[in-house]
Design brief:
The chain is mainly α and 757 residues long. It is 66% helix and 0% strand. The N and C termini lie far apart (107 Å). Its main location: endoplasmic reticulum.
């Protein structure tokens, strides 16, 4: 477990640690801030991070939660656990061409555990776990920042020393209360980022443990280096960014453990100077970096093999800059996106659940004023890089380089540099890079404190920033509690984003407010004339409002833009059926099925078309296909029973009804349909039992009481028939046939009374 090959460098390494503790300036010396014992500092960070996001604990499933959790079959007990290792984050097979290739099995496993413990899709448990994870990560940040800002030093007993208790507490608080983290904490899907960050930090801390001198006097432990690699792999199984911790561990080793001067090293390499100093240290560094890189390469290779196919196929609306023909346009827009990410870290006031689809128009020429923004970004970055490389102060070089490393390296997978990503800006992906921001902010505060005469005023300003961030976190968390609040909050931030208007419209439509939904769907289509999902949903509402002409135009345009859009083809078929253009409707249905083989709803609608055309065999076959694909498809079962009943095939109707009730035993509509069949077959007792059971499940259905009354009428139970006719008429005074049957019964009862008199 312990490296035995580099004993010669142990004294040098020990001296290096001693020198760092003695000669490097202490950041805490110059700042006016709270000094708390380690335990109380961590308790304070945990409490404050909890207060920021506590109000999200009883939120709903919102936005991507529906796809990643509610509609993800991998969460359910009937799905074998082994499937998690072959499916993506959304439950699709990794080998599928439609897969997003987001391989996060450990995150999905935690969702599955949440689901099993809760006994269903109850969001409270999911939210509580996210809040606990963020609190845990924030507490770990106290240790991480104490190393990054104060250096790595151990006591004689092997205990790590916190050489920067004030600044590490400040940096951890900045991290804990940063509003940009709200998406990760309040949005359940953000757990991928939280789990990734947790194992990312554990990997880093594990790597630091490798340099704790052991009793034998050896200077580093291979065991802890390997543990760090394994934890990095675990982080990557939670989210792809996790693998970047291995690169950061190598940077930390070079800068903190080996105290390399990067500029000096570059100059020597350029001049082919073979007399590099501290050769022993270089050998140890190269050995450890080789372990890290070999482990990282192995992990990436295994992941590539599991993915099976190439990178995911995203659309232009997901990331328009990546589809630009001009390399210049792509480069300038990527850099603009980086500047916006940096701005979100600096001023996290304008936050949005989605930044795609027109939210950020493309920069197409240097005359666009927004070029100034990316110029400002690179001006700042170049200034920081120059200081990190050229400063004579080794302490400044180390902190600035580590800050830039933690800012940039975890962001690389989302940078579009290596592969296209499926978003423009995503607040969740800067959860880890915000560590670098907190380092730079804290170091800047210490430099200002060193120069400031009134340190307490400066400290009060920083305290004010923390307080504002806590307030913003609480406000933003409340917006993530429901889709309505979340979507509406985005209207003022991204008014040009068609997806924002689409989601507001969809939320309104789900609540039954179709008139308001139409307004937002129309705006979504106006902003993005190729937004086929908005066209489809708008067409559906217009179809229900019997505005068939416009509905057909919208749906026809949707399938013209996206010929494989199965849902739009089916809805177009429904509209054409309503317009009595049956041949075209049939063709549309079959086109939908061609593009989506397993489409039970389309088979159901196709069956309705065939029933209208009196093609009874074809209708029954279509409905049977629907029930094969979706055994709980109640409407298809019902239509089969009713059609067989209406065509006099009572025995077959009874068999289908019994089969359906075995699969869906609590469906009152199936009980009602089968009860009608049994009544016609003179199986009165069994029919009565089913009618009563259906009425118990749905007591306000006038037809249920009316048909039970007909059964009693046939059966000769006239008093019960009279009672249920009256209940039916009370529920629906104009129920077809019920009033006539009731009048017939009354006349019969009057005749019986006369005979009896």
């Amino acid at each position: 477990q312990i490296c035995n090959q580099h004993n010669a460098e142990a004294p040098n390494l020990e001296q290096a640690f001693h020198r760092m503790a003695q000669t490097e300036p202490n950041l805490d010396h110059d700042i006016s801030w709270f000094l708390l014992p380690s335990y109380w500092a961590k308790m304070a960070v945990a409490l404050i991070s909890f207060l920021c996001f506590a109000n999200s604990y009883d939120g709903d499933f919102v936005f991507d939660d529906s796809e990643a959790i509610i509609n993800n079959k991998d969460l359910r007990a009937e799905t074998p656990l082994g499937d998690l290792w072959h499916h993506d984050f959304w439950g699709s097979k990794l080998s599928s061409n439609t897969s997003h290739k987001s391989y996060r099995p450990l995150t999905v496993l935690t969702f599955r555990i949440n689901y099993l413990f809760a006994g269903g899709f109850y969001p409270v448990g999911f939210h509580v776990v996210n809040i606990i994870l963020h609190c845990t990560i924030s507490v770990l940040m106290v240790d991480v920042f104490s190393i990054l800002l104060g250096g790595l030093q151990f006591s004689n007993k092997g205990r790590r020393l916190n050489l920067a208790p004030k600044t590490s507490l400040l940096a951890a608080l900045l991290f804990a209360v940063h509003p940009v983290h709200t998406e990760c904490v309040a949005g359940i899907v953000g757990r991928a980022d939280l789990l990734c960050a947790l194992f990312f930090l554990l990997s880093f801390l594990g790597y630091c443990k490798a340099f704790r001198e052991n009793k034998e006097g050896h200077n580093f432990s291979i065991f802890w280096v390997l543990v760090s690699v394994i934890l990095g792999a675990v982080a990557m199984l939670c989210k792809e960014q996790g693998i970047t911790v291995l690169g950061l561990n190598a940077v930390f080793d070079a800068l903190v453990i080996n105290k390399l001067n990067v500029l000096e090293l570059i100059e020597k390499l350029l001049h082919k100077d073979k007399s590099l100093e501290n050769a022993g240290l270089r050998k140890g560094l190269l050995f450890r970096v080789t372990l890290l890189m070999s482990g990282g390469a192995t992990i990436l290779y295994i992941r590539w093999r599991i993915m099976g196919t190439g990178p995911p196929a995203f659309t232009e609306v997901d990331n328009p800059a990546s589809f630009a023909d001009s390399l210049f346009v792509r480069a300038i827009n990527y850099n603009y996106y980086y500047s916006l990410n940096a701005w979100l870290l600096l001023c996290p006031w304008w936050l949005c659940f989605d930044w795609s689809m027109g939210c950020i128009p493309l920069i197409k020429s240097v005359s666009d004023w927004r070029v100034i923004v990316l110029a400002a970004l690179w001006f700042c970055l170049i200034g920081l890089i120059c200081q990190a490389l050229c400063s004579e102060d080794s302490h400044k070089r180390r902190i600035l380089t580590l800050g830039l490393g933690f800012l940039v390296i975890p962001f690389l997978p989302a940078s579009n540099l290596f592969f296209r990503v499926g978003f423009v800006i995503a607040e969740r992906v800067i959860y880890l890079p915000s560590i670098g921001y907190c380092i730079l902010f804290t170091y800047g505060f210490s430099l200002l404190s060193k120069q400031a005469k009134k340190k307490k005023i400066l400290a009060a300003a920083v305290f004010g920033i923390l307080l504002m961030n806590v307030t913003r976190c609480a406000l933003r968390s409340s917006q993530w509690r429901s889709e309505e609040q979340l979507f509406r909050s985005a209207l003022s931030v991204c008014p040009l984003n068609a997806k924002v208007h689409y989601n507001v419209g969809k939320n309104l439509a789900d609540k039954g407010n179709q008139s308001a939904a139409i307004k937002y769907y129309r705006e979504a289509v106006r902003l993005n004339p190729k937004y086929v999902h908005a066209m489809n949903n708008l067409g559906n509402i217009l179809k229900e409002r019997n505005e068939l002409q416009e509905a057909e135009e919208l749906l026809s345009l949707a399938v013209q833009i996206q010929p494989d859009f199965a849902a739009a083809w089916m809805n177009l078929g429904i509209v054409q059926n309503s317009l009595r253009r049956f041949q075209e409707a049939e063709q549309s249905y079959w086109t939908a099925i061609k593009h989506r083989k397993k489409y039970p709803d389309c088979y159901y609608n196709l069956g309705r078309l065939y029933a209208d055309l009196n093609r009874h065999i074809d209708a029954l076959n279509a409905w049977r296909n629907a029930t094969v694909l979706k055994p709980e498809h109640s409407l298809a079962w019902n239509n089969m029973i009713i059609l067989l009943d209406n065509t006099g095939n009572l025995a077959q109707a009874e068999a289908v009804g019994r089969e359906a009730l075995e699969l869906i035993p609590n469906d009152h509509s199936l009980m009602f349909s089968l009860a009608n069949v049994l009544g016609k077959s003179q199986k009165y007792k069994e029919s009565e039992a089913l009618f009563l059971k259906a009425i118990k499940a749905n007591p306000n259905a006038a037809s249920y009481h009316g048909n039970l009354a007909v059964l009693y009428h046939r059966w000769g139970n006239l008093d019960l028939a009279k009672k249920h006719y009256e209940v039916s008429l009370k529920l629906d005074p104009v129920a077809p046939g019920t009033k006539e049957n009731y009048n017939l019964l009354r006349r019969k009862l009057e005749q019986l009374q006369k005979k009896g008199g």
